[in-house]
Every structure is written in C-alpha cells, then in structure tokens.
Specification:
The complex is a heterodimer. Chain A is mainly alpha-helical. Chain A has 13 helices and 2 strands; from the N terminus they run ααααααββααααααα. In chain A, a hairpin with a 2-residue loop joins strand 1 and strand 2. Chain A is globular, with a radius of gyration of 21 Å. Chain B contains 19 helices and 24 strands. The chains are: A mainly alpha, B alpha/beta. At the A-B interface, helix 7, helix 8 and helix 9 of A face helix 12, helix 13 and strand 20 of B.
Chain lengths: 342, 545
C-alpha cells in the first residue's frame, strides 16, 4: 500500500511540478500587468470555492470535459487520434433531447434511461463510423473525425433552428425537456448536476476495464502494435472499432447529461469546444482515465476562475489561454531519460 | 589528402569523379601490420553513462587502407566507441589521434571534417527524393548561385556511382530501392563528403544473405580504392570474409586485436564471449537413433496468391512429426514469411489444407490454433512479436492469460501475472528486465528471449519459429537454439524457418529449401550439406547437381 502510494506520488510528480511552475510564471505575469495581482490570483484559484453556487458551476463545467476526456483515453489507447469529441457530444445531446421531447408522455423512470441510451448510441455511432473507415479502408481518422464534427454541428444546428426550435424562446434553443427527466442535484450542492458523480464512477470503471481486464489489454495491444495484437490471437481491428465506439459513447453521454442535468434543452453552440479541450486534457493526463478526471477539474477551475478574475480585477480572462499553453509546454517537457548503453 | 580539401567537398567531388577510376588511389593502402601507417588511434578511451561504465580504457589502432572489423556481443561497447569517434558522445578520458595528430571530435560535423564518415544502421535518407538528390542534400550544385542544377547533380551522381560500381540509378526515388541499395546510397553519401575513414555500424543486420555478399563486395572495392573501413559486426562469417584485422570487445574493454590470417572463428568467438562456445547442434547418436512420433503438423498443397496474381506459395506440402525439427532454408523472400503466417493462421490460403493433429485448421483463426497447441515466434520481434511500448509483464502474459490462470472471473489478477512474468524472466535469464518497464528498453537478444519465453510457456505441440536468432549475439543465439531443441525433445513438432544456413543445418532433422514459393524437395539430415542446400537455395535441382 505504502509502496503503491509512493509510486503514485512519483508518477504525478512531474505533472504537479508543471502546474506549480505554470502558476508561478502566471503570477509573475499578472504581477507585471495588474494593480492587485494577489486579488487576481485569489479570484482565479479560489473564487470557485467562495459559494456553493460557484462550486456547483465549477462541477458542471468539469463534467462534460471529464467524460469526453475519459472517452478519448479509450480512443488513444486503441491507437486512434479522435478529434471528433465535439461532434459526438452534439449528437449525444441532440439524441437525448429528441427522445425526451418525442416520448415525453412516458414516465421519467423509463424516459431517463431511454434519453441516456439515445445519447450513448448517437455518440457511439459517430465514433464507430471513422473507426470502421480506418480499420477497413485505412482512412485517416484525424481527417474523418474532424470532418464528422462539421456534419454533426451543422445537422444539429439545422434541427434546433427549424423542426425543434422553441417558438417562444429567443435564440436557437429547443423546447425544454420534460421535468421528469431532469437530473437531480448532488445532495448539498444545489444546481450541481449528478452527472459529475457519473463521470467519477465511469472514470474508475474505465481504469479497471483498460488495465485489469483482458479486453483492455487487447485494446492497448491493438493500439500500440496491431500486428502484434493479431499475432497473439486477438481480433485487433475489432478491438479498435469497439474502443472508438466507447469513446464516442462517452462524448454522447456527456451531451445527454448536459441536456438532462444542466441545460434542460438543446442549445446551439452550448459547448465552448469541450471536445478539443478534452483532447488536450487526455493528452496532459498521459492518456490515463483517473488522470483525465483530475486534469479536467483543473481545466474547469481555470476556465471558471478566469471569469471571476476578469470581473474582480483588470486582468483579462484570456490569461488562462496563456496559462494553459504554458502548462502544455511544461507537461510535455521530459527530463532526459537515461541513455541505453549499446 | 590535405585538410583544405575538406572545406570544399564539392570541389573535390568534381575532382574525384573527373577521373572515373583510372587514377591510382589517393591514399595508398599499406600492408596490414605496418606499424607506421596508423591513420587512427584511440588511446585509453573511457566513457560512463550514469552508473554504467560503457568503455574502460579502450585502445584501438587502425591502419590506413585496411578493413578493420570490430567484433563483440551486444552491449560490449562497440557502438559507444564509434559514437565517440563520430562526435556524438565525448569520452570521459583518453585521446583520439588521426594521422598522429591529437584531435577533439566535438560533433559529427567535426568528424566529417577530419574525414570520418559514419553509415548508421538506420538510414538517414529522404524516401521521396531521388538518389542524386539524397547524395547532394543540403549542398546541391547551383546555377547562377540560385537555382539547383539538376543536370550537374545527376551527372556527378552518376560518375560517383560508376566510380564505385554501385549499380544505382541516380533518378530512382529512394523509397523504391531495396534495403541493400539504400545502404549503398548511404555509403556513397559518406564518400561524397570525402570520408577517408568509413565507419559501418552493423551494416549487415538489415540485409538478406545475398545483399550481405554484395555489401562485402562493395567494401572490397572501397578497400582497393584506398579507403579505410571500420566495420562493426558480431557475425563471425563476415569477420573472416572481409577483415584485414579484427579487434574484439567484451564488457567495454578491447580484449584483443588479431590479423585475420592468424586467428580462427572459434578463437574470435572465445574472446567475444569470454569462454568456450559450444555451438549447439542436433548430433545423432548412432547407438540410439532419434525417435519421432506421429505427424502433428500436416501441410498439403498450400497455395497463396497475392493481389497481383503472383503465387507466393505454390503447392507446398510437408509434414512435421512430434519431436522433430523441420528446418526450412532459403534466401529471404522466397515465401518463408508467408509460410509462417499461413501456418500460424494470419494469412488465408487460396488452396490446400492445413492439419494440426487430426483437426483441419485451414480456416481457423490463430486464437483457435493456439488452443490446439500452436506456439508462434514471428520473424520480426518488433513487428509481430512484441508491443515495444507495453510493459514486459504484459508482453510475456499476452498469449497466456487463460492458460496460466491469470484471469479471475474476467479480471486480470496482477499478482499472478507478475509472478508468472518473473518466473519466465528468471527461467530464460532475461537480463536487465524489471517489471513495469516497456519491453522495448531491452536489447534485441533479451527481447527475443521474452517472445520465446511467452510462446514456450504454453508447452506448444506445434512450434513455428521464424528467424529466431536474427541480429542476436552468440551467447543469446546459443541459448535460444537450446530452447528450441528442448521443445522438440519434449515432443513438439518444430517448424524452423531461417535464412541462416548454418542454423538450419545444425538444428534440423529434415531440411526443406524454399525457392520461388515452392518446396521442391525435402532432404534428410545426412543428405544435406552446405553445398547441396546452397544449390537448391538458388533454384537448382538436387537430383541433377
């Protein structure tokens, strides 16, 4: 136990150091431009914890990032560079909305699982398509997932602007989903969606599945060397496709949970590029599900903290873009590994 | 050659190619053993990496115009020394003398200014560019000092190629060349930089046997032209074939230097390993001839056609009995790769049947064949054999999760898996293996041991082994060959595919020779000698030699 704690500590040491250096450099920068650098930094880091409502917003911000990032971990482990998180998210959100609006007569206990299932399937299929193209026809997945994003965004945009548009609302919004499928709040945290709890549980399950089951071992074998995976008797191509379905399903679930827990309707442009943020998060977390969960918390903290900082002081919120850039830089720094003697 | 010539390599290429071979070599080769002709001396070189002492006060003296082979097992320090010579590493102590002058080699650029050119094992060519463009990369001749003069480039390339009889077309894109041809481009590149001393780092590791012979021919041409060659290898056959002198490294020390005429292969092997080497073999005991059991593997009329309609395997039929090693010899590319994949179940066949014991497995996937007792050791450990970035224990466990009881109600029992991996590592003496490390951190020989440990752990009844000792040093090869023979003695039917003729001849009970996808003949061990098999390998017919 002590040994595993120690190795865990050693494993996250570089990440912790990178965050520390980034925050320090950020502080130097803020001190150079702001009248009240301490206040600015306090807002950035701690305003999220000032009130329960701030904390709830923070949790809600982290949820979609965490879910998509954990999904992208599956894709990366299967050797697929999934840039399509955004499209999978939108389709998941749209599917959940459509199911909730068209089957609104069903009781909540039946409708809620159907909405979630709809989101999972829609996102999953949007991950499955580029995976099949990649495995069967060697279509580069970066191109196909990126392109499918546009298809999904424009398609959902059409739906929410025309057939599903709420005539009484201002802007491209769908009608509200029935209250029976709204997710409950986390006890003691009004407005913080239960979706976050789902994200935490799913991150842990993902770790077990990837690293403690033979399916996970086969996915990782296929992802690191698919010809090896075939030679040890596993269906490598099928594992890649399955993992991409899971990746899409996670993003789709994130969309569904956003609609059911936070937005309660489909909003055009509801995501500030969560799909791409999650890609960065997954990479910074060294493609580890638990790491992705923690990193998404850090990202949410910075994103929301920046808004508070801009309100309270004269530091612009775009500082965060700079900080995250620095963070990526420092996270990817490697101390020179010991040379192999040959 | 004066040092000023190096500052203008282009000018001297022109000078060099103007006379295509008619002129006498510029540096006259001195006879081996002439103490006055040291073009290069390394004295008391030491180098440590962290806690490892890679080189311990190493001495090396190279005569002008000789082929000096540096020989030693993996990890003996050969590559480190060459990297010091080429300016990639700096020595902790010791000095380098070139033509008697003490020099500091701070970078590869400085090395090339001193006339040292290095041909790395892994090529540094631009695949999409032509041979000529690669030769003149970064220093192409220009017209009006602005436009690249492609005609001049092509002309000079052609002259350079002709001068060394390299048989290359300067206009071919490099990605269409064979491995052997690419290597020649790489050598020419070093020569175009006016390298007097050419270092070849294990150049034959990537080559097929006929390409090796061609390379040895190329080196002979270079020697005749007065270049000094340092040739790193651990293959004894090459040492004897090409060297003027040989220096043997062991554990970071230079153990001995011999003139090649004064030394036997066995002496070199002894110095490399530090003990007497017993090259394993399948000696027949006339008192009690080896007993074989029933046919475990039966291949009949197997045919594989590629998308272009060419027959990669053409009506191949043979059986392998329990306890028998069936050796498949042949020049690479005659269908052996396909044969291994077909028997393993990784490639579909167009015609013919494959039986494991009594089951027809022609259409069965590899997973099913493994359940029937297949062990498969692929020809390239980093291609199909291992996943380099996954950990050692996961690579060892990969095909043994079920058989070794590592799954508890669907989940991997990490304790059982790690214990299993530790046992295999101990049993197969895998050096430098720590659980949790990526398997790619191990040396080639130890990686191969991991593959073999994994496949033998299931006690296979049918073992398909492809090129098991390719690129390995003597010690590791010896161990692996013993393991293969032991598997056969335990009753497995072993199909051993190897392009190392000596390996097939010493291990196999029966020998087949693949040529052009066909297996015309199977020889008994007592019928097969190097001459007959070599004849068959080149497409001859053994009944009418």
């Amino acid at each position: 136990m002590l040994k595993s704690l120690r190795s865990f500590g050693l494993a996250i040491l570089p990440q912790a150091a990178a965050i520390a250096v980034t925050m320090f450099l950020g502080f130097v920068l803020v001190a150079a431009i702001a009248d009240e650098p301490l206040l600015a930094y306090r807002e950035l880091l701690f305003a999220n914890f000032d009130s329960r409502s701030n904390f709830a917003l923070f949790i809600n911000r982290a949820t979609p990032i965490a879910l998509i990032a954990v999904g992208i971990v599956f894709a990366f482990r299967a050797g697929v560079f999934n840039v399509g998180g955004e499209g999978q998210l939108y389709l998941g959100a749209m599917a959940a909305t459509v199911v909730a609006l068209f089957l609104s007569d069903l009781p909540g206990a039946m409708l809620l699982p159907l909405c979630l299932l709809g989101g999972i399937l829609a996102g999953g299929i949007w991950g499955w398509i580029p995976a099949v193209l990649k495995v069967r026809l060697a279509v580069d997945e970066v191109v196909s997932t990126l392109m499918l994003n546009f298809v999904a965004l424009l398609f959902t945009s059409y739906l929410v602007n025309h057939p599903l548009r709420d005539p009484e609302a201002y802007g491209a919004l769908s009608r509200k989903v029935p209250e029976s499928v709204w997710l409950p709040s986390i006890p003691g945290l009004p407005n913080a969606s239960m979706g976050f709890v789902a994200a935490v549980i799913l991150a842990i399950i993902s770790w077990i599945v990837l690293f403690r089951t033979s399916w996970g071992a086969e996915v990782r074998a296929a992802g690191t060397n698919i010809r090896f995976a075939e030679a040890i008797g596993t269906p490598g191509g099928r594992r890649v496709i399955e993992a991409m379905f899971v990746a899409g399903a996670f993003a789709g679930l994130a969309g569904a949970l956003y609609v059911l827990g936070i937005g309660h309707r489909f909003e055009q442009n509801f995501s500030p590029a969560y799909g791409l943020v999650a890609l960065t998060v997954a990479l910074l977390a060294r493609v580890h599900p638990i790491g992705a969960l923690l990193t998404s918390l850090y990202y949410a903290l910075m994103l929301n903290g920046a808004a508070y900082m801009q309100i309270a002081t004269d530091v612009p919120r775009s500082l965060v873009v700079l900080l995250t850039g620095l963070l990526v830089l420092f996270m990817t720094v490697r101390l020179r590994p010991p040379r192999v003697v040959g | 050659m004066s040092l000023t010539a190096h500052s203008e390599p282009l000018a001297s290429i022109v000078e060099e190619v103007r006379d295509t071979g008619a002129r006498l070599p510029r540096t006259k080769p001195k006879p081996a053993g002439d103490a006055g002709g040291h073009i290069l001396e390394l004295l008391g070189i030491s180098k440590s990496f962290l806690t490892t002492r890679a080189l311990k006060r190493v001495d090396l003296q190279v005569l002008a115009g000789e082929v000096h082979v540096i020989c030693g097992e993996n990890g003996a320090g050969k590559s480190t020394l060459m990297n010091i010579l080429n300016g990639i590493h700096r020595p902790d102590e010791g000095e380098i003398l070139i033509k008697g002058q003490r020099v500091e080699v701070g970078s590869p650029l400085v090395a090339s200014r001193h006339g040292i050119g290095m041909v790395h094992q892994h090529f540094t060519l631009v695949p999409s560019m032509s041979v000529a463009e690669n030769l003149f990369l970064g220093r192409n001749p220009t017209r009006y000092g602005l436009f690249s003069d492609r005609d001049a480039m092509r002309r000079r390339s052609r002259q350079l190629i002709e001068r060394y009889n390299f048989e290359l077309d300067p206009d071919t894109p490099v990605n269409r060349l064979s491995v052997g041809q690419k290597q020649r481009v790489e050598i020419l590149k070093a020569l175009a930089f006016d390298a007097e001393i050419l270092i070849l780092d294990e150049p034959t590791a990537v080559l097929t046997p006929p390409e090796v012979d061609e390379l040895l021919g190329v080196i002979d041409i270079l020697r005749k032209r007065g270049r000094t060659i340092i040739f790193i290898t651990h293959k004894l056959r090459e040492v004897k074939a090409i060297a003027d002198r040989v220096t043997i490294f062991r554990h970071g020390e230079s153990v001995s230097t011999y003139r090649i005429t004064e030394v036997s292969e066995a002496d070199i092997a002894h110095d490399m390993v530090g003990r007497q080497v017993f090259l394993v073999g399948r000696q027949d005991d006339p008192e009690s001839p080896r007993q074989f059991g029933e046919d475990l593997l039966r291949i009949s009329g197997v045919t594989v056609t590629n998308s272009a309609g060419r027959r990669l395997l053409d009506q191949v039929s043979f059986n392998v009995r329990s306890g028998e090693v069936f050796g498949m010899a042949g020049v690479d590319g005659n269908g052996q790769t396909q044969l291994a994949e077909v028997v393993a179940g990784l490639m579909p066949v167009q015609a013919g049947r494959i039986h494991f014991m009594d089951s027809d497995v022609t259409a069965a996937p590899i997973s099913e064949r493994m359940k029937l007792g297949l062990g498969f050791i692929p020809e390239d450990r980093l291609d199909r054999g291992l996943s380099a970035t996954m950990s050692i224990e996961e690579n060892v466990a990969a095909t043994n999760y079920v058989a070794a009881g590592m799954l508890k109600s669907g989940f991997i029992d990490v304790g059982v898996r790690n214990a299993f991996a530790s046992d295999r590592i101990k049993e197969f003496d895998v050096r430098g293996a720590t659980l949790g490390q990526p398997v790619g951190w191990l040396s080639g020989g130890n990686m191969q041991k991991i593959v073999i440990a994994r496949e033998l752990a299931r006690k296979p009844r049918i073992l398909v082994v492809s090129q098991p000792t390719r690129g390995l040093d003597i010690g590791a090869a010896e161990f692996i060959q013993e393991q293969i023979l032991e598997a056969a003695d335990n009753g497995a039917a072993v199909l051993l595919i190897s392009s190392e003729l000596t390996e097939v001849l010493s291990l196999a009970d029966r020998i087949g020779v693949m040529y052009n996808g066909r297996l015309p003949q199977v020889l008994r061990r007592d019928e097969a000698d190097e001459k007959t098999v070599g004849f068959l390998m080149n497409g001859g017919d053994a009944s009418t030699p």
